TrEMBL record:
This is 5'-nucleotidase. It is an enzyme of class 3 (hydrolase). It comes from the Eukaryota. GO terms for molecular function: 5'-nucleotidase activity; magnesium ion binding; nucleotide binding. One of its GO terms (cellular component) is cytoplasm.
Length: 298
């Protein structure tokens, strides 16, 4: 691919960025640029998409890891949560299984994990403290991305199979929770003393993001004039997040954080842009700057 083909987005020429169809990516970005920010919305996963997979060689905490690694949580929780993760996470990563085969196992995992959390008597204050002490970290450049979407009132839907309370707290502690942002995730339910007593609504796991209430609500309907969508994810399940949305131009950007050799071809087939082992949002921000006509040095 000649570098000049992407003079508008220099980041797309980097060696860790892969595209099956560079011409499609170029045309989509050009069309989004022509249409302007009034037509744009962003739908993003959180764990290992907006947040880092590793930092300085150390694996960063996901929403669930924030609990598992905290001194606030009892030992029985950490032990049982690890057993659950060791049992089900390899199933999630197994590309030899279909989504239909994986889904019942994901439901089992999340159901058991939520029951386990309920036994721990954690409070809203505990959540704040656990996030503050964790090594969950937003990607480098995430602050720029969030700020510029807010400045232009571009909707940002964060769709996660993690824990909404923890996502909100990470964003509040490391960035800012603006009114153009909406989080759809598993939210804890607290009693009037602030003690966690369960979870609200139906379970959101990695493979049912297209079945959640957001798709039967008027969220996408209210944004049907914003039919250019940037989708950000790190899992094949994330590709379904925009089902139900009115789409004219869709650019699917995937972060491939691990098992690169085994997964790259599949990710290139499913995502338009694949970013390999990069803990920043530099590529996403480069694309965003092009769409919003922001000089690359800003």
């Amino acid at each position: 691919m000649p570098a000049c083909a992407f003079s508008m987005v220099e980041e797309l020429t980097k060696s860790h960025v892969h595209m099956k169809d560079p011409e499609f990516v170029k045309k989509t970005i050009q069309q989004m640029t022509t249409d302007g920010h009034e037509k744009l919305q962003v739908v993003a996963d959180f764990d290992r998409t907006l947040s880092k997979f590793t930092n300085k060689g150390k694996v960063c905490s996901t929403c669930h890891n924030v609990l598992e690694e905290s001194k606030v949580m009892p030992d029985f929780y950490k032990e049982k949560a690890k057993v659950l993760r060791d049992t089900y996470y390899p199933i999630e990563l197994n590309h030899d299984l279909t989504i239909q085969e994986k889904t019942p196992k994901m439901i089992e995992w999340w159901t058991n994990a939520h029951k386990l959390m309920k036994q721990c008597s954690m409070t809203q204050v505990d959540i704040k403290n656990m996030v503050a002490e964790s090594n969950a970290e937003l990607r480098d450049g995430c602050q720029w991305f969030i700020d510029h979407l807010h400045n232009l009132e571009i909707p940002l839907l964060i769709f996660s199979a993690g824990i909404g309370d923890i996502i909100e707290e990470v964003i509040k502690q490391q960035s800012y929770m603006y009114d153009n942002m909406k989080i759809v995730s598993n939210y804890m339910d607290f009693d009037n003393t602030g003690k966690m007593v369960g979870f609200k609504g139906e379970i959101i796991h990695i493979y049912n993001k297209n079945e959640n209430a957001i798709h039967s609500s008027d969220y996408f309907e209210r944004l049907n004039h914003r039919d250019n969508i940037l989708l950000l994810g790190d899992s094949l399940g994330d590709l379904h997040m925009v089902e139900g949305a009115e789409v004219t131009n869709l650019l699917k950007i995937g972060f491939l954080n691990q098992k690169v050799k085994e997964s790259l071809d599949l990710y290139k087939e499913k995502f338009d842009v694949v970013i390999v082992e990069d803990e920043s949002l530099d590529v996403v921000n480069g694309i965003t700057k092009a769409i919003l006509n922001i000089p690359s040095q800003q």
